[in-house]
Every structure is written in structure tokens, then in C-alpha cells.
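PT: before anyone asks, these are the final sequences, not the draft ones from last week. 1001 residues across everything. Please model them as a single complex and drop the result in this thread when it's through.
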Amino acid sequence: MTNHWRDIKNADLILINGANPAEAHPVGFQWFMRAKLDRGAKIVHTDPRFTRTSAVADMYLRIRTGTDVAYFGGLINHVLQNNLFHDEYVRNYTNASFIVKDGYAFNEGLFSGYDPTKRAYNIATWSYETDPATGYAHRDMTLQHPRSVFQLMKTHYSRYTPDVVSSITGIPTADFGKVADLVGQMGAPDKVMTIVYAVGLTHHTTGGQLIRSGSLLQLLLGNIGRPGGGMNAERGHANIQGNTDHAISWDILPGYLKIPAPGQKNRDDYVAQSAAKKQDPNSWNFFGLNYKKFLTSTLKAWYGDAATKDNEFAFDFVPKPASNASWMTIYDQALKGKMQGVILSGMTAASIGPDTNQVRQALANLKWLVVMDALPTTSSEFWRAPGVDASKVQTEVFMLPTTHWIEKDGSFVNSGRWSQWKDQVMPPDGQSRHDHWILSDVFHRVKALYQSQGGKFADPIMSLTFDFADPLKPTLDEVAKEINGKDLTTGKQMTSFALLKDDGTTTTGDWIYVGSYLDSGNLMKRRSGVEDPATNDPTGMGFYANWAWSWPLNRRVLYNRASADLSGKPWDPARPGISWNGAKWVGDVPDYPPTMNPADPNAYLPFIMNGEGVGRLFSNGMADGPLPEHYEPVESPVQNPLHATNSASPVAFYYDQAAGRPNRFGTPQEFPYIATSYRLTEHEHYVTQHVPHLVQLQPKPFVEIPEELAAAHGIKSGDQVRVSSKRGKVEVAAIVTKRLGPLTVAGQKVYQIGIPIHWGDVGIPADADPTHGRYWLANALTPFVGDANARTPEFKAFLVNLEKL
Amino acid sequence: MSPVTRREFLKVGAAGAGALAVSGLGFEVALAASTTVKQNLRIAGAKESHSLCPYCAVGCSLVAYTRQNSDGSTQLLQIEGDPDSPVNEGRLCPKGATAMQLAISPRRVTSPQYRAPGATGWKSVTWDFVLDKIAQNIKASRDATFVTTDGNGNTVNRTEGIAFAGGAAFSSEEGYFATKLMRGLGLVYLEQQARV
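LR: through. Structure below.
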């Protein structure tokens, strides 16, 4: 989230897309309701399924899954054509005025630079026209230049008329018009809208652009950086945010530094290829300027005395991936016989990933699999899943009992970036051990093997730092101190990332967490909450600055310089983010130099983290286009109404095809219905299959089928049905419902079927089932394809057939 | 008269019948206090700790109550929403409200388990057995798939044949520690829940 849960109470209009917070994040949803009840905010819920969120919304729009770019594109068009954007913000706080190079083009669904053999773009033309002397971009503050971002964008989205939006999304034009009217009012400086989304937007081959399309709308309306505004992702698990910040992710190092690439010989090569470059004289380019300091301080934290100036602070120790190494790639490599071992520490491959049957084959292709978990999982048991002959599975499997969250301390970072500390409440259960103690123990055993036997390049293993009282059993308190980092000259904890250096005299495990653990103590433990609002939330904005700690630097709303106008006055004085009081910035922790006078002609532009210094409406940071464009899901019942020749994303990654395996995509003739998957209030992914009360509340798997479609198949609620895709099937009970209904798309009637994901072959319900839940895993149906940017699977839109059993 | 907060209510309850002397707090408190004479609160005398919900990422704060039993074991008595949190203000959803059943479960894995290639069942083994075997596997796979220099002559120092995925209920510090160790082993295949 750019903002945080409690901040949603500050909004005037709440757009919810690809999310169902009333059921999936019910306690967070209280802040949506506070906005509605206390300040008369309007809620618009746009989703394939009518849910409890829709029930309390002011408007519900049934949308075809995966078509939100068309919806947001239509709203962008409405705002641009009718001059409803926030003029001062767009002109000064976005790159609307930047001039794009001659040669950029968009035709028939393809941006300039497409290479069909590689299924990839050469993005050279997606950049600014620059001054050869300075490298700065040319700008036209009148926004009239035909190659200005503003004009290109206006032309691009002029195709998204209400009729086209309706034809793609299935939303009736009259309903769309009502939402457009509401949204169009939000460009006024004293109004603010928030967009809230979840995996209903991310889980598509166009997932990155689905989110960007909402962000573009928010920038046009001047709503990024403001309390009550922003682009807000609801994360689905307790600490995905913290794990992402700390980079359990192939493509980054902690704090969103890019993973070094082959060919980079030293830190300067790395920075040259990874960090943003200043594009405007008033841009601060804070991230780009400090990239080398952040990297060096982390190398120093990891490799200690072995990281020296002479060896570029052990830059060579950091592994450099050949290419994408994300979730599906792991199993793709296993299918190719290139992956030998997988360690799942609190994750389960078989049910989480798309295409369960193929993932199980991948697991069976491994030499060894380590599962670390408190409870059995679909991965620890994959070798004896229903229908599998265990004697034929040659994978060596380990199951290690681990402690639960309540048996260890440490922090969880919520969707709003609040890092909150928890106590260890219980001792470890039985023989279970902490994941990090197991990992440390294994690491030291590996190290001992290298010491006694030698082996491939053991230097990083030998020099990795373990500055803990007991290296085999580090406390999370000790690790939290390491993450914050210290000044090696004084021995004191670092207080700000602005003080990090690139000469090896400072350390940090993750630069965005500098300031979380000072010499005075662990700020994530702070507990000044709602027991005393007058003291703990003096502005009433809900920042609660002394409750836990929020990255970066305890800032509660990201990009908050943009919450005030050029002179430093809040756009809406009743809802200030930060404001200039004549001597300094006050309010939230400013995302700006604390005493920089906005009237100074050299004052920095508001978005300090990128090279432009302003929000990017047009960006070359995406693999599939500088502006979001609607593409059909890989499996779709219709051709793209905008460009039938390039219907689905031309750069979506087809794993099977790339590996020389046949694509397994269904046609609308064989699989005529759209399916989408989702979650229920009473379950969390798969672990709650072990929780008796929750199993009692939601005992059995089911699919939701629209009434009209059910009638056509003679299906009644409670009947067993088979839902099948080109890749697999589920056989579960039908629930016939009004929550889903037909849509008219591209002139034809289409149906959507809803599939909750939670059930599988492990847990209390499976134990009680004669087939042991053999055909319960929803992901048996989903395709093995990924978004061009993030390689996120397309869990939320695929084609199925429906049969009554 | 100010309304009675939960905090004051509990203080009154803990103070027992003597709390009746606190006259300004109103009828409800007097009633609650007199009830405690007959029936002690389940959490009476318990240790209060602060935790967080392990499920979604709203980040609801929990209050957990434990008691030390005479045999030295710790008993988890109650988990409830923390009323002081600016995130949840004491509220919990059905999942958070049943978190105790995730924490204390007869379905927990009780000891390290090993399944040899082709075996049709688990075998209970010792920690030393599994940790040694895993360490040997990691070293063998690392040595077999480690690339020091790629085809273009670039130093890459990567382990291509091992992947690691970390859990979304890791504490952040565990997550950081896992990243550091796995990069230290040369891994490039690192994943977690964010993409899926």
C-alpha cells in the first residue's frame, strides 16, 4: 500500500477492483465503512462476483475477470476528454509534460520495437527526447506538444469509449457512466479517492499493467501521496510484505535493489545498469544517487571483514542469475531435469502454484525435497497424493517440524508497511524448531563439509557473518539489529539511510529498515495506540506515529510531498499529509528534505525516488508497454475487441512453449465458460484445513454457478459437478447463485464460474473423504503462463467446461 | 461520567470485590465485579503477551494469555483482539478468533520425518539424521550445478540446481536471515508468496 489500513477512512470515493475486503480482509474493511458512515464516502465495487463487499457498496459493477485495464482506461479517457484531471498536479507532479522520442508508436495492439520470434520488446523507443549535453528530458509545460506524454496518452485512451469499455468488460454503459461521473469529481483539489485491489488484479498475464492503469488514473486525479488516496494492495498473508522487503525473491536484494546481472564486474557497473538517472534539473533522484551506498552497506553486513575496498566489497560473492528464476521457473527447471533440490520453508508447491498436476510431476523429478512446516502440506505428502503410486516416486523427501508464529517473536509487516513486533507467547511445541535455527544449523553443517572436503567456490560460505551470541541460534532481536545496521566507526546503530556510506564504514541488512532499531531500542515494539487518541494521533489523520514503525523512516503515507501544492500548502487543508510552515515540513514524516523551502527555485520535484522527480504516466520500466493496454487473458471466449490480431498479451510468458512442451490451452469450443478463483473468510489458503472450527464453518469444497447456466445443465445446489480445463479437473458440490450472472461481451453472452481455492488432499476434510480430496485442488485447472513483468500466474481467468455428475 | 473502557473493566475485574468501592464507574462494572466473586475469569492471574494474527496482512494485534502449569508447561488460555491497536481496535475475523486452534493442534508434526526414494511411508528420524543428510544433499547439488563463470566469461558464482521458498508467516527477521543464507549458498532461485 502507498497508504495504510486506517487511512482509508480519509477517502471520499473508494474504488475496489479485484478484491473483496469485506470477506478477505474483514477487519481492515472497518476503515472503508468508517469512510462511508462518518464522511459519506461512496464505495464502488467492481468484481466478477457479487460479494459482501458489493452488498454495502453504493454501486456494484459486474465485470469480466481480467478486463480492468479497459475499465480504468475508460475512466482515464473520461477524465482526459472532459478536462477533469487535477491540472496543477498533472503539470508539475507527473511526466505529462515530458516529450517522448520520435519513433515511439502503437498500432494494432503492438507497441514499437516488438520482436515476434523472441516474444519480447526492444524498448529503445519508449524513452524521452533528451538534451544531448545534460541528458535531461525535454518538456512542454503547455502539454500541447504532439509527442508529450499527455497528448500520447490522450490519443491512446481515446479508443476506450464507454461502448468499447462495455463491450470488453460487460459493464453496461449506463452504469459505467455513473461511475465515471463520480470519479470525474475526484480531480478537485479538495477531493480524494483511493483505489484498493488484491490478487484479483495481480493474478493475470496483464497483472502489472492492470495495477498501473489504476495508478495512472490516480496520478491524473492528483491522488497519489495524499491521505485518503493512493494505490493500495491488500496483501493476503501475514508477512508477504516483510518477505518482499527483505528480498526472498529472485530478482532483488533487500530494499528493492536489483539483483546484480552477469557482466557487471563491480559496483559501478551494477549502479550504471540498475539505478535511475536524473532526468530533470530539479529532480533529486534520491534512490539512484544512493544506490551504491545501500548496496555496499548490505555487502558489508553480509560478508563482514571479507568485504573490502580491494575486492569491491565482495561484489563477486553475490550470485548473478542467468535469467528469470521465479516461482513457475523453479518447477519448469525441475521438469527439464535441471533442478535437483527444493527447500519449502512454510510454503507448499502443489496447491499454491498453477497447474497442480504439472507441479507434482516437477516435484517427482527432483532428487530431494525439504519441507519445513508445523503441519503436513500438499507438498510434504505429494508423493502419496491420491492416485499417485508412491513406489514410483524417486524423490527423497524430508519433513521438518517447525514452530508456529506464536512460538517465536519478531515482526510482521502488514499491507500498510507497519512493522509490528510480537512476543514469543509459547515455547516450541514438542520437537519443533524455528525455521531460522534449522537454516542456520544446516548452513553450518554445509560449511563444515566444505571445510573438510573442499568444493566449488566456498568463499561466500566461509565469510558470511554470524555476529550473534550463538550463531546456531540467533535471536530475532539480534537479527533485527543487523537489519537496521550500524556505523562501524562508532559502533552505534544507524539512524537514517541518508547516512549510509559506500566506503565500507556502515552496514545495513535492508536500507529501508534503517531507523527501525536504534540504540534507544526497537521502535517496532512501540504501542501508543487508540487508548489515547488525543496524545497518540494529534492530527486525527490516523498516523499513530508511535505505534510500531513504518518503513521508510516511520513515514505513514508514501510520496507525501505530493500531498501539498507547489507552495507547500495541503491540497485539502482538512486532510493534510505534510505542510510547509515557513521553516520546515510538518505532519507525517516528510518524503522530502525536512527544511527544503518549496519556494526555492532549486527545490526538488516531489517524487524523489525516480529519475524524473515526478510520477510516471508513461514508463519504460515495464516489459509489455509504456502505457497499459487491454489484452485478453491467454484463455478467453472472445477476440480482443480493440485488436483481434493481437488479442492476448504478445509478451505473456508461455512456459510450456518456451521449454518445447506443447501449450495446453483450451478453446472456447471445448471449454466454453470463464472461471476465476478466490478465497473465503473462513479459510486462509490451505493451512486452515487443519483448524477444526474453520472446517466446521466451511466444511466442503464447492463451485459457484450462475442460475441460468445451472438451469441449462440441470444442476441444482448440492449436486456434484465436474469443472475441467485443458489441464485438469475438480469434482465438487455446486452452489447455484445469483452472485454470478451472464455478461454480454463483444456481442455474445458469457458466463463466469467461481472456484474457492482452499481444499486439497491434506487436512481434516480430506481425511474424512472417501477419495481423500482427490479432485479438490482448484489449481489443477489453472494455466502455466506468466505476466511478462512479474511472471505472476493467470490464476484468475481461464476457460473450463461444466458437467453434472 | 466517562464510559468504562475494556482496560478499566479488566482492572476492576482483577481487583475483585474491592472494586465495588470504585463508585464512579457505574452499574455495569458493579455487576461484572460481583459476577467475578462466583466465577473467576479464565484469564485471572494469567500472563498477558502481545502477538499478531498469522493469517492475512491487515496486521491485527492480538492479546494472548498464558499460565505456567505446575509441571513447567505453558498453557495458552485465550487469544483475543488487542483493543489498543489502531489497525483492528480489538476486532478479529473468524480466522483470527480461532487462532488458538492453529497454535495448539493435535495435527502438528511431532518429529522429523524421512521418506527414502520409492518408500511408501514416512520414517521418524532424529534431527541429526535429517540435518546431516540435507547438508550433504545441498553440498552435492551445489557442487554439481555451481557455475563460476558463464559462457560469456562473466563471473556469476551461482548455484543453479537448488531452489528455496520462504513462508508468509515468517517473522521478517527470519525472512531476512533466510535470504542472506541462501544467497550465501549461491542460490538464484528464491521465492515466497508474493507472486502466487
